[in-house]
Amino acid sequence: MLMVPDVIRESSGIRIFGKRIKSIVFTTDVAIIRNVNADAVIAVYPFTPQPVITQAIMDAADIPVFAGVGGGTTMGRRVTNLALHAEHQGAIGVVVNAPTTNESIRKISQTIDIPVVVTVVSEHDDIEGRLQAGASIFNVSVAARTPYVVDKIREKHPNVAIIATGGPNEQSIRDTINAGANAITWTPPANGELFRGLMQKYRAGEPRGD
């Protein structure tokens, strides 16, 4: 099993439909999804969202899935339709990209019953407008400035649910939690990196683990 950093357990978590979620793995790799101890998966990828991809992930996952539905290169009514389809497929929430307009967020929130997760990439993003449009959760991803942006959001909105990238180590994760993040996204090692360590063990004659 891939194990998320233990420090993530220090977060308060976000309760959705009776499930408390603290750790969220950021991947679309179904092999990793089936072999990680995270509470949920956030399935966002840099291509036009396709229901068949979401369905494959949903079929493989044994943990809740936040499904990406676009909002960047994919916009307009298609985003709303993808969000509705993701809800029917069983997603626990839908994730829209930072360029998504407030009007699109409003239409999505009026169409589906699951949470709308809005990605934040700058302290200058229109947080107030997003909330008024129906955003349920913010997904803060601002690299090294993530704790700062989380803190700025939390300062004005003490009760809003915040997911945030944890960064490269335990200290950066803890800093993000202390800034006010309720849940942390964790990026697992790439398959090539995992295989590299496994092959080194094989070459050294260590017992196989499968």
Shape: globular
The helix/strand order is EEEHEHEHEHEHEHEHEH
Into which percent range does the helicity of residues fall?
A: 25-40%
Structural class label: alpha/beta
Mean pLDDT, as a whole number?
93
What is the makeup of the main sheet?
Answer: 8 strands, parallel, barrel
Report the portion of residues in β strands. 15-25%
In short:
The protein is of the alpha/beta class and 210 residues long. The chain has helices spanning 30-33, 51-60, 77-89, 102-111, 127-133, 146-156, 170-179, 191-203; strands at residues 14-16, 19-21, 23-26, 40-43, 65-68, 93-96, 116-120, 137-140, 161-165, 183-186.
How do the helices and strands line up, and which of them pair or pack?
Blueprint: E1 14-16, E2 19-21, E3 23-26, H1 30-33, E4 40-43, H2 51-60, E5 65-68, H3 77-89, E6 93-96, H4 102-111, E7 116-120, H5 127-133, E8 137-140, H6 146-156, E9 161-165, H7 170-179, E10 183-186, H8 191-203
Parallel strand pairs: 3-4, 3-10, 4-5, 5-6, 6-7, 7-8, 8-9, 9-10
Antiparallel strand pairs: 1-2
Helix pairs in contact: 2-3, 3-4, 4-5, 6-7
